[in-house]
């Protein structure tokens, strides 16, 4: 397990056999770039600055799918991308569920997202509608 407080993740490339990585509270945004970590199965990015602005979260999720193919557990709690009451009082359970479908559409090997186990029904729904589930509300 690695506990990292940083702004640059360049040094992680020397840890190619890393399995768990906790990057909570690091001011990381959607421009986060990880090196290829083929054995990483757990990644927590809680309380950073990841959002759903201008398609950038889609780019981040595509990047994670490419560089951490073994990822099974991801947590984004406390980020604007994870719409729940911890981040914004205007978000509700429907917003959170749409977010889950979108993330599961992008990262199909996940077994846990945030604090909840991925259900078979969620996985099926993510395959059918996940691409259309970005959480966007009119101003």
Can you put this structure into words, describing what you see?
Helices cover 26% and strands 11% of the residues. The protein is of the alpha/beta class. Helix 2 crosses helix 3. The chain has one domain. It contains 3 helices and 6 strands. The longest helix is centred in the C-terminal third of the chain and has 14 residues, at 93-106. The protein is globular. This is LRMDA protein.
Which terms would index this structure?
139 residues; single chain; 6-stranded mixed beta sheet; 3 helices; alpha/beta; globular
Beta fraction of the residues? 5-15%
Let me know the number of strands.
Answer: 6
Shape descriptor reads globular
Q: What number of structural domains do the residues give?
A: 1
Average pLDDT works out at 86
């Amino acid at each position: 397990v690695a506990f990292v407080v940083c702004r640059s993740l360049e040094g992680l490339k020397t840890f190619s056999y890393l399995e768990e990585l906790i990057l909570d509270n690091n001011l990381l945004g959607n421009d986060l770039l990880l090196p290829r970590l083929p054995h990483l199965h757990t990644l927590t990015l809680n309380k950073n600055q990841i959002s759903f602005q201008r398609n950038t979260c889609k780019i981040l999720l595509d990047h994670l799918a490419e560089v951490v193919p073994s990822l099974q557990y991801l947590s984004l709690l406390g980020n604007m991308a994870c719409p729940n009451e911890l981040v914004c009082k205007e978000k509700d359970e429907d917003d959170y569920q749409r977010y889950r479908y979108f993330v599961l559409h992008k990262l199909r090997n996940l077994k846990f997202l945030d604090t909840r186990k991925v259900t078979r029904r969620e996985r099926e729904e993510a395959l059918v509608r996940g691409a259309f589930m970005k959480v966007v509300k009119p101003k």
